[in-house]
Fold this protein.
Amino acid sequence: MTRVRFAPSPTGYFHVGSARTALFNWLFARHTGGVFLLRIEDTDVERNREEHVDGIISAMAWLGMAPDEAIERQSARTERYRVAIDALWEAGFLYACDCTRDEVEARTADRATPGYDGYCRARGLAREGRALRYRTPDDGVTVVEDLIRGRIEFPNRAMEDFVAVRSDGKPLFVLANVIDDRDMQITHVVRGEDLLPTTPKGILLWRALDEAAEGEAGWGEVTPLPAWAHLPMLVNEQGKKLSKRRDPVAVELYREQGYLPEAFRNYLALLGWSPGGDREKVGLDVLVAEFRLEDVHHAPARFDVQKLAHLNGEYLRELPVDEFVARSRPWTVPEEEAAAGRWVPGAAAGAPFRPPWPPERFDEAVFVRMAPLVQERVTRFEEVPGMVDFLFLADPELDERSWQKAIAADADGARALLEGAIAAYQGCEWAPDDLKAVTLAVGESAGRKLAKAQAPIRVAVTGRTVGPPLFESLAVLGRAEVVRRLAAAVERLSAGTGS
Ligand code: GLU
């Protein structure tokens, strides 16, 4: 039975690299019929934030990667670490050190190899109140057999006697991490390549813990080493390592922009792995069936937002219309969603998203009529309000550039056309095809082709030059309101405002 864990430190927003690590662990567990654990590595009390723990859990739930067992937290395991540290101390793997960083630097400044010089190794200091260093072997190599990278050798000589326990008695990351992996019977450690340098230290500690388990101090069981798989790092479009400061990396941000979790998950799966052929859109069942750690690439994986958006658009267009409408709700009726206790964009940061229309003016039945056309034209849900706001605003704001371009640039021509449309629309059948035929005729008598005839009407009715197909939009908005808005535009032209 395979057992894997995703072990984030809650010191910042949950970012795409972490989500990719979580996903690869999760896919591996599903593919092998194993167990996927979530372990919160919250021993760094100064940098941990509880809100980041919530962020991790909610992002994982959003991506459909809930852990199979109760969430583990390192902060609840202090006593267990103490027992293990005592055993390591008794077995002689650790020694106390009272050197300050300055002292070490002063002694080692002119050395070729950086790091601690072993000054306290033989001093026999008592452990209370002191940092404890691990006594690294003087010779030999520590080998990491990595499922992705193959065999990697680390000469022990090049490894300093690293601090494993702080002066307050708490274990450092690498020690707590291996004690946990042993206790949780982890069979495969799947994590970012950035952690590879700590892996030989972890292996040394693992063996020391085995020896301490067998010795008199006996604290636990001899436990087989896990297999390792270090995932390639993520780079941005310029090929630079994805950076929290430079790049949009928070998963919540993508959720707020209206990416579908199934599309986002699909895209994450392609970051360092591929299902073969040139397939990109692959459903969850295929991911689970085909994912193998051995097939993960070595080369850095490019995080390409355009590709993600494209994939998301494909997923969006495939949704049944009623599902598209339902899943648009956090962007169309966020007030209702929030009142029902559901997720709303921006709420986590204290600035919940609000669409441009007053809530009482939104009519889902009207939105349903437009939805199939909107669905064809957006790549993310956040674009939905801007596509349909003209239906739910009493007077959509006129975009000044659109007005200038489509109306004011040829005020007389636009006036003739708008007046012609008002007259024609009052008597015609109110359906997209009829509206199109009538508009074509009005355009012809004003000497304009259909596209040129549509533009002023679109701006007068929706406020902008771009949007969903015009005649469907007019049909949904209704005759009285269309005519009223066309008349208002004519009046604005006559008053000379904005021209
Ligand atoms: N807590 C570590 C981190 O967030 C990961 C530890 C691991 O996966 O082994 O970088």
